[in-house]
Amino acid sequence: MSRIGAAMFVALSVAYPLVVYWAMGRFEPRWLAVLLLALALLRALATRQAVWLVAAAGAAVLAALATVFNQALPLKLYPALINAVLLVVFAASLAFPPTAVERIARLSEPDLPPSGVAYTRRVTQVWCGFFVLNGTLALATALWMSDRAWALYNGLIAYGLIGLLFGVEWVVRQRVRAGHRHG
Fold first, then answer.
1. In a 10 Å sphere around its CB, with 0-12 CB exposed, 13-18 middle and 19+ buried, how is residue 74 labelled?
2. 127 within 8 A of 100, measured Cβ to Cβ
3. pLDDT-derived band of residue 1, with 50, 70 and 90 as boundaries?
4. Which residues, at least 6 apart from 34, have a Cβ–Cβ distance to it below 8 Å?
5. pLDDT of 183 higher than 70
């Protein structure tokens, strides 16, 4: 996938809740299911990773339900599905190291010290907790809240929380590194 194609894919993926919210009053859910299926298949084909193939299969089920019943609820469940998939990936990496965060850290620091491995394990656990919380809220907004509240949470607030977690982790990481250099 070209850089422009990848950037467009990421932008559309991030905007998915807002696009679905905007389109709900304009198109039947069965037609929006095509967007969901296309996004999931593009991600699966672009990465060719088993986890995204599983996510694409889950998205296909949601798209099929949206098509058959012509209901928006399956489309609104996609953010919860993605959180569940990411939770499984991160939790599995805790059971079968290296952890997901350690793999990412080793891209920039191949000789990660044991203290770094322990730190990345803890960060992976924090992300697991985040995926549980965020996935639960994504599910709750889909099931019990208005379309507007669902779009607001999944299309804006959730991303703010992700950014906040990245920012807090970065600050903590700087302090941990400084402590190891001086300690």
1. buried
2. yes
3. low
4. 63
5. no
